[in-house]
Amino acid sequence: DAGVIQSPRHEVTEMGQEVTLRCKPISGHNSLFWYRQTMMRGLELLIYFNNNVPIDDSGMPEDRFSAKMPNASFSTLKIQPSEPRDSAVYFCASSLLVGGTGGNQPQHFGDGTRLSIL
Amino acid sequence: ELKVEQNPLFLSMQEGKNYTIYCNYSTTSDRLYWYRQDPGKSLESLFVLLSNGAVKQEGRLMASLDTKARLSTLHITAAVHDLSATYFCAVVPNTGTASKLTFGTGTRLQVTL
Predict the structure, then answer these.
(1) What angle is formed at CA A72 by the lines to CA A51 and CA A82, rounded to 5 degrees?
(2) Residue B31 forms contact with A (CB below 8 Å)
(3) pLDDT in tens, A36-81
(4) Do the beta carbons of residue A108 and residue A24 sit within 8 Å?
(5) How far is it, in rounded angstroms, from Cα A20 to Cα B51?
(6) Which of A36, A109, A111, A113 is best to mutate for the B interface (most B CBs within 10 A)?
(7) Percent share of chain A, pLDDT over 70
(8) Is A86 helix (H, G, I), strand (E, B) or coil?
(9) Which residues of chain A are within 8 Å of residue B102 when distances are taken between CB atoms?
């Protein structure tokens, strides 16, 4: 079975440019998560969708970051304008949330996008 | 704010030895997850612990959860080189947003010959 698919795997761009990261969750999963991983701050949850609806975006660092999930099989994370401090590995994860209490299923992670802003 | 702390942060151990990684968290939770990450790779789910006293084992790894002490352990038995990786615990608090994981700092394990 295909896992979580992210693209691109690597992105190098100049400060001020718009960056769009893409994610295809595992088919049948109804929850999708965007994380950022850096040496200094570790793994941070940026935003979390359930049934395509954003539930918690308290981790989005600032207005330059936005995320969408137009359908159950696709999500984007956009940074505009990008800054050098946005350089990190961005992971997308998905899981099956059953019931209203959060469910017990682990989150399945994609391979990540390694983003470098020069 | 939920805090999840792991220790040690770095562990170098010889093949064949046993050791334990600790994960402490600061709020009430009945759900704790362990993940493994190889350098430059994704995170792989290892264990899901859902109740006080839960114990799961897979090969040389065994994880346990004590919700009263807010502590989980990952025990490594007779380590082998293939276990070298970074191990993360992650917690979902009983209150707040369902499924919102907070990750620990990670423990980088290096198994030497």
Answers:
(1) 95
(2) yes
(3) 999 999 999 999 999 999 998 999 988 999 999 999 999 999 999 9
(4) no
(5) 39
(6) A109
(7) 95
(8) helix
(9) 45
The SS3 of residue B81 is helix
Specify the pLDDT at position A102: 52
Per the DSSP assignment, residues forming a β-bridge with A67 are A77
Mean pLDDT by runs of 10 across the 113 residues of chain B is 93 95 92 94 95 92 96 96 96 76 94 91
Pick A42's closest partner by Cβ from B33, B41, B105: B105
- A81-85: list long-range contacts, CB under 8 Å, 24+ apart: A81/A15, A81/A16, A81/A17, A81/A18, A82/A13, A82/A15, A82/A16, A82/A17, A82/A18, A82/A19, A82/A117, A83/A15, A83/A117, A84/A15, A84/A117, A84/A118, A85/A117
Look at residue B49 and give its three-state secondary structure. strand
Q: How far is B19 from chain A (nearest CA, A)?
A: 23
Nearest to A101 among B48, B98, B102 (CB): B98
Contact B98 A95 (CB under 8 A): no
Segment A100-108 shows an average pLDDT of 72
